[in-house]
Write a structure and sequence with these properties.
Helix content: 40-55%
Number of helices: 17
CATH class of the largest domain: Alpha Beta
Number of strands: 9
Number of domains: 2
Structural class: alpha/beta
Strand content: 5-15%
Order of helices and strands: HHHEHHEHEHEHEHEHEHEHHHHEHH
Mean pLDDT: 89
Radius of gyration: 25 Å
CATH topology of the largest domain: TIM Barrel
Distance between the termini: 44 Å
CATH superfamily of the largest domain: Metal-dependent hydrolases
Largest sheet: 6 strands, parallel
Shape: globular
CATH architecture of the largest domain: Alpha-Beta Barrel
Length: about 450
């Protein structure tokens, strides 16, 4: 890895090559004559040294930012988890409109304009199914599979509405094609295995509808897999990881070509899934437990096992998964929200209003962007450079629950800039931004094709 001083030298070299006058390179001004011999090296060195001395820190940072922005927008940038789908369904938010208008009723982290500013090549729209939909009556928008289909249909509708800027994608090759066409590739991943309602037939139909990964659980343990969200709750019936049917779900996902996502699952479910899967797995939006002791995050041993499997961890941006002080804050917040739900069981709007007032009164300090990069760095050092990516969780976390400098999807180029500052090569940055995930997706497709031939 390069140090910042080396990066300054690189920037100075670039400036020096512009400052050197052609006539100074050789006697005839062509750079080829005999007068050039023995003098051009000294002249170039003097010019480089002079340029490096003249570079101020501000010029240095500006030059690096320009180079980072260029690299970012030339790269395949894939965000594997975005919950903008929920306001699209529940609040009729049009992703083509501004979600950052301070006077608007709906404020979001995501819209098409900011996705383009952020250099997004492909976005996975989360087909998030809250566990409350399991027991809801059809008249109330239930059940779980119906909720998933409502969200899937909304993604297709939005892509049709904005077909000049977006297109549906189903394969790694589709993502690369969309990049060449300068369109945003729209993909989908189910969040919460209860959405299949314990049916492999439903799983297959979701694949045919375009779903390309499924998170085995959400915060709730389902009928066939344990969740990290309630693993300490003794009132919940757990399975010690995956049940036999849960293992069958993983095998069927391999056969279909649907990526197995282990974000949200319990540790034992993770190890069972890694053991059962014949294809690489993903963690679509998880961070590192060594830096933020949160059950949703991955331990170092889990990161190493994921690497052995050939998979990839997509680092989550939520400050409660990055910042240990926010982990503690999140626990207090959840406890307060639970008390409010008991106090106002039939008034969810009152609960949310009281909760927002509580957050404002607490006024927690912003998490620095450096902590997000620390998690990327730690995952790289633990799992390896080929096994790390980005899974933002935009619009699935509190509106102010993101690090400073990563307030919305337009800020993604800041990741590239910060990785450059830490000495990552251009090739390694491209791996983190999207190439690692494309490798996994391609391998999942290969495994599925192979199983169908056999």
């Amino acid at each position: 890895m390069l140090h910042s001083g080396v990066l300054r030298s690189i920037a100075a070299w670039s400036l020096a090559t512009v400052l050197v006058v052609p006539g100074a390179l050789c006697g005839d001004g062509t750079g080829k004559g005999p007068a050039n011999e023995g003098t051009d090296d000294a002249a170039m060195k003097d010019s480089r040294a002079s340029a490096e001395r003249s570079m101020t820190p501000e010029q240095d940072d500006a030059a690096l930012r320009v180079r980072a922005n260029k690299l970012h927008h030339e790269s395949i940038v894939i965000d594997t988890h975005n919950d903008i789908t929920t306001p699209m369904v529940d609040k009729s938010f049009d992703i083509g409109t501004r979600g950052d208008d301070p006077n608007a009723q709906i404020r979001t982290h995501t819209d098409i304009r900011r996705m383009k500013e952020g250099g997004v090549t492909a976005e996975f729209f989360a087909i998030y199914v809250d566990h409350n939909f399991i027991d809801k009556k059809p008249s109330d928008g239930g059940g779980a599979a119906r909720r998933a289909m409502d969200m899937i249909d909304t993604v297709y509708s939005q892509v049709r509405r904005h077909s000049d800027q977006m297109e549906m994608a189903y394969t790694a090759a589709d993502i690369r094609r969309a990049a060449k066409e300068h369109k945003i590739a729209a993909l989908m991943g189910i969040e919460g295995g209860h959405a299949i309602e314990d049916s492999l037939h439903a799983l297959g139909m979701f694949y045919r509808l375009g779903v390309r990964y499924m998170t085995l659980t959400h915060t709730n343990t389902n009928d066939w897999a344990d969740s990290s969200g309630d693993i300490q709750d003794t009132m919940i019936k757990h399975h010690d990881g995956l049940t036999d049917f849960g293992r069958e779900v993983v095998r069927e996902m391999n056969r279909l070509g649907m990526m197995v996502d282990i974000s949200h699952v319990s540790d034992k479910t993770f190890y069972d899934a890694v053991k059962e899967s014949k294809a690489p797995i993903i963690a679509s939006h998880s961070s590192c437990r060594a830096l933020a002791n949160q059950p949703r995050n991955m331990t170092d041993d889990m990161l190493r096992e994921l690497a052995k499997n050939g998979g990839v961890v997509m680092i989550n941006f939520y400050d409660a998964f990055l910042d240990q002080s926010k982990v503690e804050f999140s626990k207090r917040e959840q406890a307060f929200e639970s008390d409010l739900a008991k106090k106002y069981p039939t008034d969810p709007a009152r609960v949310q209003n009281e909760l927002e007032n509580w957050r404002a009164a607490q006024n927690p300090a912003k998490t620095p962007l450096s902590l997000l990069i620390d998690h990327i760095d730690h995952a790289v050092k633990t799992a390896g450079i080929d096994h790390v990516g980005i899974g933002s969780d935009f619009d699935g976390v509190p509106f102010t629950g993101l690090p400073e400098g990563m307030e919305d999807i337009s800020k993604l180029p800041n990741i590239t800039l910060e990785l450059m500052k830490r000495g990552y090569s251009d090739g390694d940055i491209k791996k983190i931004l999207g190439e690692n995930f494309l490798r996994v997706m391609s391998e999942v497709e290969r495994v599925a094709a192979s199983s169908k031939r056999n």
